[in-house]
Amino acid sequence: AVPVVARALVNGVLTLTLNRPDKLNAANDALLLELTKALRDAERDADARVIVITGAGRGFCAGQDLGDVSGRSMGFAEHLEHTYNPLIRKIRGIEKPVITAVNGVAAGAGASLALSGDIRLWSSAATFIEVFSNIALVPDSGSTYFLPRLVGYHRAFELMSLAERVNAEDGLRLGLCEHVFPAETFAADVQAYAERLATRPVRALGLTKRALNKALSGTLDDALTYEAHLQQAAGTHAEHQEGLQAFREKRAPDFRNL
Ligand code: T3D
Q1: Interface confidence (ipTM) of the complex
Q2: What SUPFAM superfamilies does the record tag this protein with (predicted)?
């Protein structure tokens, strides 16, 4: 059977491809649970230094598979806690960089997924829609957390109310992504970017991610204390020794296999 999430590990980059292209990779439970499992596996896999989440075909993820909801035994809250919420928590919690590589349309929970990455790379063919209000639902899977932090309350409310498609040019302008690459070379550009990130000290980046996530909801005083705590861990690790030694020897550091 074709996997709903395909895995490929190349040069330290683990690419997880949502694989229901005929439905623009709309998410059913199998896809969400498999993606979360793949991230858990990646957490323990030292060869996976950077994780890329992308979509097969012309879509990134069209959100909840609307053909999969009728007759469901779980309520909405229970369903979110069973599927989407563990996924989003894992993406933010895994101490490795996660790139969301948005190859096409990202809608509903797919838009939330697109925003959840540490680095967001978009194809010039990518579009983004906070589509929930079209079916009279509330934005979920982290959209109400991520989007106002990027664009402010008012623009977030407008995007959520009118459910208008944002194209790649506007996505970049609004800060919904870090870079836009041409659709024709998107996969290769994402791989090259991710390989560059994979040469960085991923353990230190994992701690950086932990510090940033905590700082987003705390005070400066809390952040200063937590930085000091994490610096103790980073500064006593082999990555730091290698960084220092490379600086002294005037060469590029090699952080792999540390
Ligand atoms: O616990 C819970 O259940 C609550 C959780 C909610 C989380 C959510 O994500 S709610 C939001 C759910 N998603 C949507 O409402 C999006 C619905 N889709 C669309 O609005 C549009 O398809 C898009 C804007 C995403 C893309 O438009 P377009 O014109 O590029 O493509 P299309 O022709 O509409 O779609 C192509 C095919 O994908 C089509 O199938 P067909 O006709 O070729 O057989 C379409 O039905 C299918 N598809 C698209 N989105 C979904 C989908 N099939 C199932 N579920 C989808 N979400």
Answers
A1: 0.99
A2: ClpP/crotonase
Instruction: Locate the ligand 1 atom nearest the alpha carbon of residue 165 and give its number.
Output: 24
Nearest to 237 by CA among 200, 210, 201, 212: 201
CA 64 – ligand 1 centroid, Å: 8
Identify the CATH number of the domain defined by range 202-248. Answer: 1.10.12
What value does the mean pLDDT take over residues 90-109?
98
Fold of 5-198: 2-enoyl-CoA Hydratase; Chain A, domain 1 (3.90.226)
Q: Where in the chain is the domain with CATH 1.10.12?
A: 202-248
Measured from the Cα of 65, ligand 1's closest atom is 55
pLDDT at 219 over 80: yes
Give start-end residues of each CATH 3.90.226.10 domain in the chain. 5-198
| pLDDT above 80 for 1 | no
**182 burial class (0-12, 13-18, 19+ CB within 10 angstroms)?**
exposed
pLDDT, mean of residues 143-169: 98
* CA 202 to centroid of ligand 1, rounded, Å: 36
Whether 194 is in the pocket of ligand 1, judged by its Cβ within 6 Å, is no
**Gap from CA of 225 to ligand 1 centroid (Å):** 45
